[in-house]
Write a structure and sequence with these properties.
alpha/beta; seven-stranded mixed beta sheet; ATP-binding; Glutamate--tRNA ligase; EC 6.1.1.17
Length: 573
Amino acid sequence: MDEDLRERVEREAEKHALFNALEHGSDAEVGPIMGPLMGENPDFRQHGDQIAGVVAPVVSRVNGMDADEQEARLEELDEALYEELMAEEEEDDQILPDLPNAEEYDEIRMRAAPNPNGPWHLGHARMPSVMGTYTEEIYDGHFIVRFDDTDPETKRPDLDAYDAILDDIEYLGFTPDEVLKASDRVETYYEYARKLIDAGGAYTCSCSGETFSELKNDAEACPHRDKDIETVHEEFDAMVDGEYSSGEMVLRVKTDIEHKNPALRDWVAFRMVDTPHPREEAAEYRCWPMLDFQSGIDDQLTGVTHIIRGIDLQDSAKRQRFVYDYFDWEYPEVLHWGHVQIDAYDVKMSTSTIIEKIENGELSGWDDPRAPTIASVRRRGIRGQALVDAMLELGLSTSDVDLAMSTVYSNNRELIDDDADRRFFVRDGVELPVSGGPDVANPPLHPDHEDRGTRDIPVGDAVLVEEEDLPEEGGKVWLKGFGPVKRTDDGFEHTDDDLEVVKSGDVDVIHWVPAEESVAVRLRTMEGDETGHAEPGYAEYDEDEMVQFERVGFARVDEQNEDGESVAYFAHP
């Protein structure tokens, strides 16, 4: 092998070794790179018995570089191969699939369309998590939040829910580019209803619900279907003016009265509602659009390119397409997903159920730890990113999916563990006098961060320990940060044992607090409230700070009371 060929082999081997190491995040190996090396360079094959000997030291040299050096060298040697690697990494990092036909749109525009009939339960977090990620992180698109609040009776809007929902979206880490309320846009819906009437696509109908249902199921046309356009306009204007009561008149979209799916036959676009809307700006309206009409018009006017909706709402797209066809509009791309089911809660994940339990006193509010709501996990100290990451991992399956709260807890633990100081909390402890040993205990503030130092816990004359940690008389335990003690008739007596008794498994390490100077704390959990005492230093934390109660779990400081009981919310183990 001459020198020129050797240099070529070394150069080609180096770039393949770099690619192999970076792609797998580990040391490159000679075997896996020989295939592509020989395949791309057929003239190397006649020197096959010598190639491995040239490649081996190159691979060794590559493995001696750190990842940054490997990336820089690969980009220098072969920019195309480097870009291929970066594209693979980007694809691997993208949890969500690409949106269909995304490349055909100048801008990806998606909308979350909440009904503000109450604050959000945990299932609602999936919508902004996915759509916000697509528009803000993957496609640099446009994220719309549109409140679909055109049902002032059955799903009556809660005036506090509008801001609460926007606050939840911010907690999850997203900022809408545009916020709309459908109840501000009623005149626009009237405008397009009149255009639809002009196009021969809608008619007013005074049939009772029962009568029309029979006609529809028999694939028979409503007797009002062939009204002249002028009459339809007059009667629709009367609807707008509030001249009909609930149930007296509706506006229907003309579809196919013989359509194989009865649910799509001449569906209702507008109906009369006697109950005033709770928003003052919309309280005078009595003629309200149905969701399929309102949502379809808004999606077109706001330029929505991609819609994600529940698999149970497949008929919505089919209904709306009739309207789009009348106006010669192109329907957005549609994806469907199944429902999210969440474990760990006894309360059904339903807005109406949660409202009922709050009203009858079974829950203290939307942020009760037992409620499967965003407000609840937020008050417990769970970061929005932990919830978003768990939702993204569910993907876009059309089947119902299960979200384990343990996944959310694991995500949150990674986010908060480094910053959360360690403290002791004893639940309804047993008091025992202590004799001997140091006056002050010095356990670390964080076991993984020695630079933070220790906390000083005055021992005093007695300590509190949890009953299940109490050894039998004559037995020993190790009070963490204080040392070994033996239980006697008089309480705990410090001994001279060293850590070997712990390492050998003969003595358990337990948490404790001083009996005199500890802080009374009520810990609110999903199973109910627990009372106990925290070490004195706990009083130094501000509300919203996170701590880890050793051997208990992470908790968020909720309320500090110098003269009474402080309150903390249990997050998770």
